[in-house]
């Protein structure tokens, strides 16, 4: 039997009717059509499905949607400003940090959370922050460079 | 991967949660973060009829430091514990163990109480809490009881929780004198890996020698364990290389690891000797011994 869930997704309040066994990932992709969030391993290891709940990173593939009553979710679609890419997204493109792109939404959301709490991370801190996001294409070097470049850009924008 | 079908209940109090467990004796299961539970449900290892949500109960998400005791509430996340400056300062062993768990996105949602209630032998928080002499406050429809954590783990994925019981709080006694602590784990890769084995060690000493020792292991027996015989060998001894090597050898004798696809029992036993030695040396070093 479907149950009511009131949840905010990327700033929009949504009154949904969902099955009790729906995962946050299902609600995002199948319920409201936000397919930017990817299902990789489905068991919390690979990081492709990472989104934010009330500003904190979570794995949407292991988060029961019914537990999110009244909470606010941010997905990759909520990172850019309309069609204007967020500096993290732009730097990913410029640095060649995207190859197949499957891990990119999770990585970019993870990087966003990192830079919100730590605007000037060391390379070691970036590596630790993305330790739960698997990329099988790039070898990570370009991803780390992109995040550090975005951090620098965001810091100088904050000072301007 | 879809979950099997189940009903979802959102109790508003511990009493309601216990009552819901009592009303669903066969198919009711508690969920907090669900990071372990939902995984095993996806694989159809478990198919509860009804999930009873602890996160819907207000007032259980806390990490609170009182005069004699640190309290961790049933829905405090691993990240909540890591962010606590009291934990970092008084129980670095616990911070190190929880800092090993998966990654931030998992720690932000998974709870420490949930982790120990799974009853997995290779649980980092379980080993840390064993070394720290933690107690569990267990609620049931008829009231509450307190259980030392070394009586909590009964077997593989099996705990001392009876039907309709739940762990409401973890209590860790705050030591009155300096304690040298260390937590070391061996895993195949640096990130996103449960340990092959892990060691928690906490030592106290005076001018004459060791006055208190606790050593715990994860991944080295059917459940997380304390190494009582190795601890007894240290007490009263000077914390030098010889005593620590001796304790490490006893640890390797007293553990009972299993073989699996990741490592053989013999390999795990050798790891135990090395890691117990290193953890004891580090712990002793932190109180100016060894």
Report what the structure shows:
The complex is a heterodimer of chains A (160) and B (290). Chain A is globular and about 50 Å long. By secondary structure, chain A is α+β, with helices and mostly antiparallel strands. Helix content of chain A is 35%, strand content 16%. Chain A has helices spanning 24-31, 87-94, 104-117, 123-129, 141-159, and strands at residues 3-9, 12-18, 50-53, 56-59, 72-74. In chain A, strands 2-1-5-3-4 form a five-stranded mixed β-sheet, with helices on both faces. Chain A starts with a strand and ends with a helix. Chain A has two domains: 3-76, Roll (Ubiquitin-like (UB roll)), CATH 3.10.20; 87-159, [2Fe-2S]-binding domain (DNA polymerase, domain 1). With 290 residues, chain B is of the alpha+beta class. Chain B has three domains: 7-54, Uridine Diphospho-n-acetylenolpyruvylglucosamine Reductase, domain 2 (2-Layer Sandwich); 63-173, Uridine Diphospho-n-acetylenolpyruvylglucosamine Reductase, domain 3 (2-Layer Sandwich), CATH 3.30.465; 180-286, Enolase-like, domain 1 (2-Layer Sandwich). Chain B has eleven helices and 14 strands. In chain B, helix 5 (92-99) runs antiparallel to helix 8.
């Amino acid at each position: 039997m479907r149950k009511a869930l009131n949840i905010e997704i990327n700033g929009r309040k949504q009154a949904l009717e969902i099955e009790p066994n729906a995962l946050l990932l299902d609600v995002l992709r199948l319920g409201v059509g936000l397919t930017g969030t990817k299902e990789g391993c489905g068991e919390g290891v690979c990081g492709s499905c990472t989104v934010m709940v009330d500003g904190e990173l979570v794995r949407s593939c292991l988060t029961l949607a019914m537990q999110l009553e009244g909470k606010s979710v941010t997905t990759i679609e909520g990172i850019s400003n309309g069609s204007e890419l967020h500096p993290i997204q732009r730097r990913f493109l410029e640095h060649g940090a995207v190859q197949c792109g499957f891990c990119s939404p999770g990585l970019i959301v993870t990087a966003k959370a990192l830079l919100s709490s730590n605007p000037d991370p060391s390379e070691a801190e970036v590596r630790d922050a993305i330790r739960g996001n698997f990329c099988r294409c790039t070898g990570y070097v370009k991803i780390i460079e992109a995040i550090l470049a975005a951090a620098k850009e965001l810091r100088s924008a904050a000072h301007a | 991967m879809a979950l099997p079908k189940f009903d979802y209940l959102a109790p508003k109090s511990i009493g309601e949660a216990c009552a819901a467990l009592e009303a669903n004796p066969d198919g009711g299961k508690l969920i907090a973060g669900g990071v372990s539970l939902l995984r095993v449900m996806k694989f159809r290892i478990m198919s509860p009829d009804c999930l009873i949500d602890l996160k819907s109960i207000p007032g259980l998400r806390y990490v609170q430091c009182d005069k004699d005791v640190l309290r961790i509430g049933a829905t405090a996340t691993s990240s909540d514990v890591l962010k606590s400056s009291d934990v970092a300062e008084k129980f670095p062993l616990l911070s190190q163990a929880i800092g090993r768990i998966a990654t931030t996105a998992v720690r932000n949602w998974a709870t420490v109480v949930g982790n120990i209630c799974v009853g997995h032998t290779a649980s980092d928080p379980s080993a840390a809490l064993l070394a720290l002499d933690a107690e569990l406050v267990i609620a049931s429809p008829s009231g509450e009881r307190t259980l030392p954590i070394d009586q909590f783990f009964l077997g593989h994925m099996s705990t001392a929780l009876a039907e309709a019981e739940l762990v409401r709080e973890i209590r860790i006694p705050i030591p009155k004198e300096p304690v040298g602590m260390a937590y070391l784990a061996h895993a195949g890769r640096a990130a996103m890996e449960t340990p092959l084995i892990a060691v928690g060690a906490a030592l106290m000493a005076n001018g004459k020698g060791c006055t208190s020792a606790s050593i715990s292991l994860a991944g080295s027996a059917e459940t997380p364990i304390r190494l009582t015989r190795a601890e007894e060998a240290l007490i009263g001894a000077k914390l030098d290389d010889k005593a620590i090597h001796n304790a490490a050898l006893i640890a390797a004798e007293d553990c009972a690891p299993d073989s699996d696809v990741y490592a053989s029992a013999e390999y795990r036993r050798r790891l135990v000797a090395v890691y117990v030695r290193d953890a004891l040396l580090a712990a002793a070093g932190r109180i100016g011994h060894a």
